[in-house]
Amino acid sequence: MTLIYSKHILFLAILFVVFTFILLINNKRKIETIRRRWNLRPTGKYRISIVLYFLFWSLIFVSLLDFRGSEVSIKANKPISKTLILIDVSTSMFAEDVKPNRLKKAVMLARHFVKNHGIGDIGVLIFSDTTKKLVPFTDDRDLLDSRLGALEDLKYEDAGSNLPMAISESLSYLASESDKNGAVGNIMVISDAETHEDFNIVGSSERVKMAFVAVGTSKGANIPIRDRNNVFRGYKEYEGKAVITKINENFLKTLSNKFSMYKYWVIYSYSLPTDEILNFMSTDSSQDEDGLIKQRPVLGHLFIASSIFLYFLYTLLRSGKSFYLASILSLILLGSENLKANEIQTDLSKLGSGNSTADEKGNLIASLLKEKKNKEAGILAGEIGSKKIQLETKLNIATAQLANNKTADAIEKFEDALNSNIDEKYKNEIRENLLISLNKQLDQKGKSQKQDQKKSEEKNQSEDQGQGKGSQGNQEQQQKDKKNQNDQKDKNKEEDKDKSDKSKDQEKEDSSKKQQPLTNKDQTNKSKKSKSQLAGLLEQLKSDDKQLQKQFIDTSAKERGTKGKDW
Fold this sequence. Notes:
Blueprint: E1 2-3, H1 9-38, H2 44-63, E2 67-68, E3 72-79, E4 82-88, H3 102-116, E5 122-127, E6 131-138, H4 141-150, H5 163-177, E7 185-191, E8 208-215, E9 221-222, E10 224-226, E11 232-235, E12 237-238, E13 241-242, E14 244-245, H6 249-254, E15 261-267, H7 274-281, E16 288-295, H8 300-319, H9 321-352, H10 358-370, H11 374-382, H12 391-403, H13 407-418, H14 424-515, H15 520-552
Parallel strand pairs: 4-5, 4-7, 7-8, 8-15
Antiparallel strand pairs: 1-2, 3-16, 5-6, 9-14, 10-11, 12-13
């Protein structure tokens, strides 16, 4: 058994002695006070509880030293295959049906995948009209995270999505990096999976695992156009009509004919199936090799568990009957809260796998509203289409929109619910909610009008005050200018004298410094400064690399032979 933080033993020992001294003094004062006022002596039960409390803190202090067992070699499978991440950066990835938008959600998933990947090399390709290698195969997680972070600030460009060419190039890249004949490894494609009529792949894909992650909704959304300053300029149009981009799940299913090892996921605003993707990529043991991994098992949890048990005994002896009652009540409350949390968690996991229906999403919206998570409920309500949904789901959507100040959309949903065939009791409740939303809309309009009036009045007052002070200010300003000119002449003369004196003193100091050699202290201080600056220098290099990559990330085709799809 060894200690990781053995150099802190002296500090912890001093701290423990001081803590023990304070504990004993307080306990002694407490016993004397009780004996003097009530003529009572400490019982054996009390003395045992004090000893247990002392042992509890002793184990806590010992656990801070991080005890480790002797080094052990463990057999494990090391992946010899490589993983390639293929990210779609076409125009349709700027759609905002998934928050914050499809591209940023794709980058979020890629960065989370890299951090949780474990052992193995990862490469990154981006594509739209053409394909570009962003990061070659490497195990440097910091470099991968920095390069992926540069994609979050990617600006809008008119670019299509040439997915077949991108997959073909990724297969050839894997084949060039593999020792065996043909491509061997994993490919994770993150795209919005729009329809691709001619999908012909060049290259061998028999020993490649394909994980396709579709970002978007089947309902679809418009593509917002923003300039370099991120100012909204409207929505993208094609042949005079607004473009609506949406995923095609039938296309995702047909890809299983192209790859022998294939699986796809559809993710939304709150989906992050990283663990499922990693499990899918790690199921094939033929791509692994046997190896030994050395580790030192952590033993600190044994001290922590023992200290918790001792504190439980201490509380049991000190509190008595009141402790039993409090324990029973806390267990009941924790059980009820866990049931609610488990229900929401199961609904969220089902939503992440893409198997939840519109009505199940409506039930999840109701649960989120009960937990006062109005923002999350509003985002989820925007992802549900308006076809074939039950009345209760419509009301849940309307309530979420009303909670997020989207009164116009909420009124539309409530009116739609009133037109359906339901009982008169439900209609009265819907009418009450409709009145609430109408009143809220009127209040918002009234507040906005008042704010506009205040702004106009403040502007008029400032203009009137400026005109009244203008004539007096001109005369005073002329007198101040004359004084400032005279003062400035005197200051210039004094500054010239000071500069000449300082230059002479500086020359003397430089000559004396050149004659004095560096001492050992100066050399050690210089080495310490250089080491402390290394960490900051690495961070600066990462940020510079990120800014540099932004200038070269461009996969769009600037010149098109024919007018075709550019999203």
